[in-house]
Design goal:
By secondary structure, the chain is of the alpha+beta class. 44% of the residues lie in helices and 14% in strands.
Length: 250
């Protein structure tokens, strides 16, 4: 995909940076080596890109970016409805949870289960639940710019595809404080990454890929990673199925 930021594996990031900027991979490696002692402040992606651009005089033309949305779902899910923000996906979320828990909870439908939760849940759980439905940014859907950030050990990057969306946790812990339903949910669902594209013209985002390559080369402990190598919310806008590139079950 020409003029596209596509940061999947470490080697893929190197290739993508080279294609977009015209800078040889050996020179990219040399620049990353020069970043070894950079502080967290110096590794702000905007400063990183500014330094890289000054060093090599590149002005890449960017037209779109590929993002990676992490979640858990039933194995049959093909995302033909698109990638939906929380408020649009709510009925699907409740239907999925009802199908998983119907043998454990005495509800005749997902609607009955939803009404019980919304009328009887404690204020903390219900407050978090409503935030994910009403706050424009929290609505999502969310995407990471670097696929492999989802698998960084000890950085909590893996929460959504290993533990499930926060809104699901609020619901299941209300009905089962002992964690039994959350355990069943994890057994019945699979983690997945949805690869999708959006329009993008901002080359500054390339700084995230450079940062990631620097960190996986030099960081020895999770606390050393700068984290959040491009994390964006679609802020309540759905991603149409036509912009979904791949559904990757883990």
């Amino acid at each position: 995909m020409k003029h596209t930021i596509h940061f999947d594996t470490g080697e893929g990031i190197r290739n993508n940076l080279s294609v977009l900027t015209g800078v040889e991979k050996s020179e990219i490696d040399a620049f990353i080596d020069s970043m070894k002692e950079w502080t967290q402040t110096e590794r702000d992606h905007r400063r990183v890109w500014g330094s890289f651009q000054k060093e090599y005089g590149c002005n890449p033309v960017i037209k779109q970016a590929v993002w990676f949305h992490g979640c858990r779902c039933l194995p049959k899910n093909d995302f033909k409805q698109g990638l939906l923000p929380n408020h649009q996906a709510l009925d699907l979320i409740w239907q999925q949870l009802w199908e998983i828990t119907r043998e454990d909870l005495n509800f005749s439908s997902s609607q009955e289960m939803k009404e019980r939760y919304e009328s009887h849940s404690d204020s903390v759980s219900l407050g978090g639940y409503r935030d994910r439905l009403l706050d424009q940014r929290q609505k999502g859907p969310w995407g990471k710019l670097v696929r492999d950030e989802w698998f960084l050990s000890g950085t909590h990057s893996n929460h959504y595809h290993e533990s499930g969306p926060e809104i699901v946790g609020f619901i299941l812990r209300h009905f089962s404080p002992d964690g039994a339903l959350e355990k069943k949910y994890l057994q019945k669902t699979k983690g997945c990454l949805v690869h999708f594209r959006t329009p993008c013209t901002n080359p500054v985002l390339l700084g995230h890929g450079i940062n990631f390559l620097r960190d996986i080369r030099f960081c020895q402990h999770s606390i050393e990673y700068i984290g959040y190598y491009g994390l964006e919310s679609m802020e309540g806008h759905s991603v149409p199925y036509s912009d979904t590139i791949k559904v990757e079950f883990l």
